[in-house]
Amino acid sequence: MNMKWSLNELYTSFDSDEFKEDMVFFENSIEHIKKWTLDNCATSNSPKEKIEEHINFHNKFSDVVNKLHNYAELTLSVDTKNEVASKFSEKISSKLSELAKPNTIFSKWLASLEGLELIIDGSALLISHHYYLMDLARNSKYLLSSAEEDLISKMKNSGSNAWSRLQNIVTSTLLVDITINDEPKKLPLSLVRNMAYDKDKQVRKTAYEAELKSYDKIAESSAAAINGIKGEVITLCDAKGYESPLQNTLESSRMDKETLDVMLSAIMESLPSFEKYFRKKAEILGYSQGLPFYELFAPMGNVNMHFTLDEARKFIVKNFATFSDKLASYADNAFSHNWIDSEPREGKLGGAFCSNLHSIKESRILSNFTGSFNDVSTLAHELGHGYHGLCLSNESALNSDYPMPIAETASIFCETIISNAALKSASKEEIFVILENDISSNAQVIVDILSRYLFETELFKRREDNSLSVNELKEIMIASQKKAYGSGLDHNFLHPYMWTCKPHYYDASSNFYNFPYAFGLLFSKGLYAQYLKSGESFLKDYDAMLTSTGKNDLVQVAKNMNVDIHSIDFWRSSLNLITQDIEKFISM
Ligand SMILES: [Zn+2]
Q1: Rounded to the nearest whole angstrom, what is the distance from the C-alpha of residue 17 to the centroid of ligand 1?
Q2: Pairing of strands 183-188, 175-180
Q3: What is the pLDDT of residue 160?
Q4: Among the listed ranges 245-249, 283-287, 362-366, 422-426, which one has the minimum average pLDDT value?
Q5: Which residues contact 376 (CB under 8 A, 6 or more apart)?
Q6: If you measure from the C-alpha of residue 103 to the centroid of ligand 1, how many angstroms do you get, rounded to a whole number?
Q7: CA-to-CA distance for 269 and 264, rounded, in angstroms?
Q8: How far is the CA of 456 from the centre of ligand 1 (A)?
């Protein structure tokens, strides 16, 4: 049984009165904000009242924008060629870009106020938005003039945003020529990539070869898109006074360089362990030169762990309940209210994601569920994102915007709950399967993510001078994979096109969307270890931590859980949990 999500809770259609009314409110609000800023940010009198007005209006406005924007985007994600949705999505983005100018004026005005801290202290509303306000003021140093910000923002719509739309379309409509059981077929990319989990070795290999071959059809346009996007990022970071795109990402991640460096050092130290795992998996599957890329996700063991969607639901809800009833009932509710779009189909985006719909206190989850244990784990992951949204649902919209690295904490925490709970009730064969699946996905988040970080670092370095050809991009990807996986992978069978199929490289506002996953995994592993020690008393702190993620930097969020993310030992101890699993796997 498959499930399609319901978007009726947002709007019943683009033609509905509610949608039209909200569009009118949205467009009027933009004019209001423009005028209000010009009228109010020229002088420094009555700052408290003005800031309060700004916050109240923007909280309401953000909720409406979130609703409109998500309705268009969610519609598009399951029907990428939907012209009406695409038109509205573009219209909303383009209208929003008109706010660059007033937002710049407001931020600079805020930063120019004398005694901003004192002003904030004089109002309960402002105190509750302290981080948001100080963050705006602090980051105003990276803003160009309001006229320049205005133009940049408009030009992004025909620049990086247009490039990512193109990339979306070419990958979601790509049909792969593949012959299975002597029958030639044309299948969507996401379906063929999912075959990496197939039980049959020949299917995995055939799928890999067909997938790589299919990229010939889109490689040139993907290269143009990635060059266009990264080129724009470099130009803008330069103009705005960021040291580098990485520094820009760290600022918007509310993460300091010290944390990243310490975490990466710990990861580098752990690579030999992962190499051992890959080589062992290769050996079991009958390879002597390390693992071919197409065997990375090969299911191990003889247990047939296949799940229908309904079985996945029961499994997830039951095991979430071992952690907390709140989490279990959130997940059960997501299934019973059709918040999930489950199966792969043509014209639908690949992969999985969760959108939190703050204004209606709900979430929607897209997955490409085919029934493997890994798919169950992915669903648990996305439900974790949704649970994070639930914890934030009583916060104001402006206090609900959390940075990338913390975004992967609740999701990965839920994956850990699922596999640990599953391990408890499993037979020896099942333990082997679950353990291997776990290590395999952790290896993705540590080792493959490292290869993506290395790739993006090199891409930015070379893109400074000129655009990169398809061949250069392939070369850099191969070099990065060799460096991260070492002798764990067979160097004759790597994946030179990973930059084509991962959408993360195609969002100009989220560069280096790779290390946040490693942060999320290792941070949540550390938290899970705490949970095992402190049991039920952990739950309250954990929810409070998630609730606070929209209004703190990462060092502070971690401190609230008594974690020092500047200490390499914290990262080492999280990585140790994975290397212990690897040792156990090898001994089995
Ligand atoms: Zn995630």
Answers
A1: 34
A2: antiparallel
A3: 96
A4: 422-426
A5: 307, 312, 315, 316, 418
A6: 29
A7: 9
A8: 19
Angle in degrees, CA 448, 453, 459, rounded to 5: 125
Please give the distance, rounded to the nearest whole angstrom, from the Cα atom of residue 367 to the centre of ligand 1: 12
Sign of the torsion angle spanned by Cα atoms 266, 267, 270, 272? negative
Q: Phi/psi of residue 487, each to 5°?
A: -85, 10
Q: Is 297 in a helix, a strand, or coil?
A: coil
- Please tell me the distance between residue 220's alpha carbon and the centre of ligand 1 in angstroms: 29
Read off the tokens for 15.
């033609």
Tell me which H or E stretch contains 181: none
Ligand 1 centre distance from Cα of residue 531 (Å)? 21
Alpha-carbon distance of 164 to 270, in angstroms, equals 34
- Ligand 1 centroid vs 179 CA: distance in angstroms? 33
Residue that is written with structure tokens 């980051």 in the block: 139
Residues sharing a CB contact under 8 Å with residue 149, sequence separation 6 or more, in sequence order: 100, 101, 103, 104, 143
The rounded Å distance from CA 259 to ligand 1 centre is 20
Higher pLDDT, 588 or 558: 558
Q: Report the predicted TM-score, pTM, of the whole model to 2 decimal places.
A: 0.87
Q: How many CB atoms sit inside 10 A of residue 352's CB? A: 19
Q: For 257-280, what is each residue's pLDDT tens digit?
A: 999 999 999 999 999 999 999 999
Q: How far apart are CA 344 and CA 360, in angstroms?
A: 27
Place of tokens 């990022």: 233
List C-alpha distances in Å: 154 to 84, 148, 226: 21, 10, 19
Q: How far is the CA of 354 from the centre of ligand 1 (A)?
A: 8
The Cα 372–Cα 378 span in angstroms is 10
* Radius of gyration of the chain, Cα coordinates, nearest whole angstrom: 24
Buried-exposed string 397-412: b where 16+ CB fall within 10 A, e elsewhere: bbbbebbbbbbbbbbb
Measured in angstroms, how far is the CA atom of residue 144 from the centroid of ligand 1? 33
Question: Tens digit of pLDDT for each residue in 89-139?
Answer: 989 988 998 999 999 999 999 999 999 999 999 999 999 999 999 999 999
Spacing, Cα 530 to ligand 1 middle (Å): 22
Distance 353 CA to ligand 1 centre (A): 7
Q: In terms of Cα–Cα distance, which of 517, 532, 526 is closest to 574?
A: 526
To 5 degrees, how large is the angle CA 443–CA 213–CA 474? Answer: 55
